[in-house]
Amino acid sequence: MKKHGFTIIELIIVIFIIAAALGLVLPFSINMYNRYKASLEAEKVLTIMLTAQREAFLHGKSKEMTSKDGTLYVNGVPEETITYPVTIKSPLMFFSNGTSSGGIVEVEVDGYGFEIVVEKPLGKISLEDTFYN
């Protein structure tokens, strides 16, 4: 009479193979997830910049973005919603005619570095990963 099913050795081998696969894949997945969460935080700075650019054009008033001691300032007013270090080496301007002075905004979130690049004169804004971690 033939028995149906798996032996305990076969089950242990399958469990070992699954554990080994998870052991290889899980560290990469966790790092990728942490980088994703950090990029979402950096996108908050990007959103503030896009809003400043739009408001400068719509309301006909230039907006100046600066940083001091890791705090982001728009027209001299600190952005309280950003809780991580932001660095702007030289003041970045969004002019009322829709153009920009151009520049780079560096953002560090949980050991991950990002650069928000503003191209001059037309003010195209992009978020780039600088791979600190």
Keywords:
alpha+beta; 8 strands; 39% helix; four-stranded antiparallel beta sheet; 133 residues; minor pseudopilin epsh fold
Number of helices: 1
How does the overall form come out from the CA principal axes?
rod-shaped
Beta strand count:
8
CATH architecture of the domain at 41-129: 3-Layer(bab) Sandwich
SSE string: HEEEEEEEE
Helix content estimate = 25-40%
From the alpha carbons, calculate the radius of gyration and give it in angstroms. Answer: 24 Å
**First and last CA, distance:** 60 Å
Strand order of the largest sheet: 3-2-1-5
Stretches with pLDDT under 50, minimum 5 residues = none
CATH superfamily of the domain at 41-129: minor pseudopilin epsh domain
Quick check: average pLDDT?
Answer: 90
Biggest sheet descriptor:
4 strands, antiparallel
Short description:
With 133 residues, the protein is of the alpha+beta class.
Could you describe the 3D structure shown?
This protein has one helix spanning 8-59, and strands at residues 63-68, 71-74, 77-78, 86-88, 92-94, 103-109, 112-118, 125-129. By secondary structure, it is an alpha+beta fold. It has a four-stranded antiparallel beta sheet. The protein has a four-stranded antiparallel beta sheet with strand order 4-6-7-8, with helices on one face. The longest helix is centred in the first third of the chain and has 52 residues, at 8-59. The chain is rod-shaped. It starts with 7 loop residues before the first helix and ends with a strand.
